[in-house]
Specification:
By secondary structure, the chain is α/β, with parallel strands linked by helices. It has 3 domains: 5-178, Rossmann fold; 182-366, Arc Repressor Mutant, subunit A; 370-477, Trna Endonuclease, Chain: A, domain 1. 44% of the residues lie in helices and 16% in strands. The protein starts with a helix and ends with a helix.
């Protein structure tokens, strides 16, 4: 398995403890939660079940959503060895059946029960969470050889109804794992395993499009160039991810249209917007509903909340950070008439070159630990943000990343995504000096600015290159 070493070690440690365990694993859809559990507990799962997605429920005729979920649960029990009886009429009966099923198979050894996509089972007015609470508190928690693992892509549901439950499930989750996307290094390892040959420059570009999501990376085929693969995945008539964007929101959120609207607003500006700006552009009133929607998008790793350097907490910004959503909104959405060889024909165009420059900033913000390691400050507490400033009657300035450190250093980071080594000329040197001068006015006198260049292939040394105290390359980001 690529990566996940810490998660595997923790799951195995919990498996070997002699007590009942309720483990919650959550994270962005397609990040590999099911695969992690399947591989870690191969041959050890006594019962497994996955809820039906909202998309599947809509396509099924007849019964209510709850009845469809119960029928599916009953089918899982029958398929894994339970004698046929009758389909449960509610979740209390369903979990009683599960208890009886497990008691028949209890030989005293550790038993793993895997309930995948748990939030999908909690349909409206189904009483699911109350029944699950009864199953755990009355029966499961008293069996020292039982390990119940639950997964879900609806992160907000997992956090609010399970981990932070204030009712009968309060403090019942014994361990939680939030599974993150692959890093650049893990993407490289994945491609090598799949025999997909790409340079680190191209791997970084692929990351800009799909992030470190294993499910998406799996669609890159050996023997094809990066542009060929991009057309195959996004722009062909039978593009592999043609319907993924809409499915992504429908399968996770109760209000997918609102979530899509917010994401589409945030896709318009790299540094994001304030809540009031999002309200104005999306048409949703500032209030509890918008606040809840933004919190859900943050929990699901689509957006992040941050305070731009030099601003107060009242000016919090929300920024879209999911590479797939950024790329889809920029190049795929509302472009149904695109040529099937769109990327092959346009990958060297100025529009796409400009996009790469902005997208590389997002890559860097997703690899702050690697940047800090390259600077030798892994153990120092820091805050990272972008910074922009517009002066009266003058052209504004922007700094890609500012790392404010507890050791009285501020790193002013410039990011350049180039296919060759980067050169600082006289004009750009003047721009950099101006930015540093403006930043010096904003920081306390006890702090000192160290300038950092984050680029692909390094820096050509000349009379202006000494402006940068440190140069970080892809080699550092791939560590």
């Amino acid at each position: 398995m690529i990566g996940r070493k810490h998660e595997i070690a923790e799951l195995n440690r919990i498996y070997n403890r002699n007590k009942a365990e309720l483990v919650a694993v959550y994270g962005r859809r397609r990040v590999g939660k099911t695969y992690l559990i399947d591989q870690t507990f191969k041959g050890k799962i006594v019962f497994r079940h996955a809820g039906l997605s909202p998309i599947e429920l809509k396509n099924m005729t007849g019964r209510s959503p709850m009845q469809k979920q119960l029928k599916h649960f009953y089918t899982s029990l029958i398929g894994q060895g339970m004698k046929k009886s009758k389909c449960p009429s509610d979740w209390f009966e369903a979990f009683l059946m599960l208890e009886q099923f497990l008691e028949e198979r209890d030989k005293g050894k550790r038993m793993v029960i895997f309930l995948d996509e748990l939030p999908w089972m909690d349909t409206q007015r189904s009483g699911f969470i109350t029944a699950f609470e009864g199953f755990w508190n009355t029966w499961a928690c008293h069996r020292d050889n039982l390990m119940v693992v639950v997964c879900g892509s609806a992160t907000t549901w997992i956090i609010n109804k399970l981990i932070n439950n204030h009712g009968g499930l309060y403090d019942r989750v014994t361990y939680e794992i939030k599974l993150s996307p692959f890093t650049l290094a893990e993407c490289e390892e994945f491609f090598k395993q799949e025999k997909v040959k790409m340079s680190r420059y191209d791997i970084t570009t692929a990351y800009m499009m799909v992030g470190g999501i294993p499910y998406y990376l799996n669609y890159f085929e050996p023997g094809k160039s990066l542009p060929q693969n991009v057309d195959h995945i996004f722009f062909n008539k039978e593009a592999k991810l043609k319907y993924e964007y809409d499915r992504l929101f429908t399968s996770i959120f109760d209000n997918p249209d609102m979530m899509r609207s917010i994401v589409e607003v945030l896709s318009k500006k790299n540094c994001g917007y304030t809540r009031s700006e999002i309200s104005k552009r999306s048409g949703y009133t500032v209030g509890g509903t918008l606040t809840d929607a933004l919190s859900a998008l943050i929990a699901s790793d689509f957006i992040e909340k941050y305070v731009p350097f030099g601003m107060s907490k009242r000016e919090e910004h929300y920024k879209l950070i999911d590479p797939f959503c950024i790329f889809y909104n920029r190049f795929v959405k509302n472009h149904s008439s695109l040529n099937e060889s769109f990327w092959m024909m346009n990958h060297a165009s100025q529009n796409i070159i400009s996009w790469r420059g902005l997208a590389f900033e997002n890559v860097c913000f997703n690899h702050v630990p690697q940047i800090k390691a390259a600077l030798g400050i892994s153990g120092i507490s820091t805050e990272q943000s972008a910074w922009s400033k517009r002066e009266d009657d003058k052209e504004g300035t922007q700094i890609d990343m500012i790392i404010k450190r507890k050791d009285n250093i501020v790193n002013m980071c410039e990011m350049k995504f180039y296919s060759a080594e980067f050169t600082v000329d006289k004009k750009y040197h003047g721009v950099l000096c101006n930015r540093q001068g403006l930043l010096e006015k904003e920081i306390p006198s006890k702090m000192v600015i160290h300038n950092v260049l984050i680029t692909t292939n390094g820096l050509i040394y000349n009379e202006y290159s000494g402006f940068f105290d440190n140069v970080i390359t892809l080699e550092d980001l791939f560590k």
